[in-house]
């Protein structure tokens, strides 16, 4: 109510929000307390920089800050459909043309298989964490527990930015494909504001409306969103099945005769491009908090969906080559123009419909993942804690969902696809690499239990693994065609991983489901993700640096002190509860 008071006695604004919703911590209660906090920045940095959370803290104390719990309504069937819906958007319709024509030729099928297996390695790492830590924060939680508060904050801040860019990009692409269905130029469905800069002058209300409709669905019910996602994904799969059947009726096996025109380098270069067609499963991992039986449902859902996607991508790319020679494939609209070349102009409408359905489910999975990331970050007070609120009625993170949707809609409304495409960064690959590294730390290091000798050997082998992986990627990036560099870096990676396997005792076994062949699979996941990072353009590294610098400014002046106070409060509460239990136990013994 206007001019009303909150439960702490503070005046609320007309919108019903007060300062306590954004900065309730002790350090922000007055100018004097904030200045005192700033004076203690150095000591607080020492305290929080490498501070690691614990499993029980994330599963109970931190999650409890949302006041209400999300409903556990999802099973393995839901996760499979969410996995397919989150990953299979318009990527197959866009990336295949560039990869096949400019790099791999008919071997694009092999490129899809290689990039798919690389993605599967990351899926395996995510699955173990998601089973052991089924909370809404996804990779933010995993990194916070194993690599510390600061690494998790920087990683999460960057991936949230990329989520916004990806959501806005898909929303604008939705408008473009809708225009295709009606035989219109994409910008004819947008308003031109001549007074704005060119890259921001084509205003896209359809993108904003679609994002808002997806937001409403995501806020109302996760199970309802799952049903909608399942139906839309089934329609998408039917369109892909149509492409396969109709395409194979026009197949010409001779198109595979010159299988790899650019050799192994062309195949690997195409793999690095096509890897981004598999991105999206990390958002599905944030749904772990709402899964009924994490130990069974998450492995079946995440791994099963990725295997299905790999198979479909390989079949679709093979069909495209069978329809049209690789050197005639259009880079921008490969499937549409391939059907047109064999006299099936009407098929472009089916392809556009499939892309629309795919992008709708990607938008839904995107906003679900965004909201749950932000919710858990709010629980730790690294972001304003009002974002951590779980709605009592719907049991969904409404606040975080609405905030992220507004950001998506604003960016998508103004910003052209060209600008958004240039903002796509290396953050996803960085997160995948860090999660693989965190899994190795989780398996081989437990504070207070691992001996100093094993800890030092672990650090040595990890440094060798990281250094050799980066060196291999750099050698590839600078375009050396020789093998001498690889003959040095790859054996070092192998020896480091073998040493970790043979010389360091595994400190922790997974309770419910674990990645097989540790340390080989997480080590290979780290190396392949770093290798693909070498193909990312320089502008993405610049963007990453600028955005990370902004995150550091916010961390030093706000997030550090908020999270420090929240951690101190949790520690005090836990100590008080322990003392009370001990007193009650002692009193009980005296009584007896």
From TrEMBL:
Family membership: Belongs to the amino acid-polyamine-organocation (APC) superfamily. Cationic amino acid transporter (CAT) (TC 2.A.3.3) family.
Designated name of the protein: Cationic amino acid transporter C-terminal domain-containing protein
Membrane-crossing segments per the record: 74-95, 107-129, 150-171, 205-221, 228-247, 267-288, 300-326, 346-369, 398-417, 423-446, 458-478, 484-504, 516-535, 541-560
Any one GO molecular function term: L-glutamate transmembrane transporter activity
Family matches, as InterPro entries: AA/rel_permease1, CAT_C
One GO cellular component term noted in the UniProt record for this chain: plasma membrane
Domain of life: Eukaryota
Localization (cell): Membrane
Keywords carried by this UniProt record: Amino-acid transport, Membrane, Transmembrane, Transmembrane helix, Transport
Record organism: Gossypium mustelinum (Cotton)
UniProt keyword annotation of Transmembrane present: yes
Topological relation to the membrane, as annotated: Multi-pass membrane protein
Keyword Nucleotide-binding applies: no
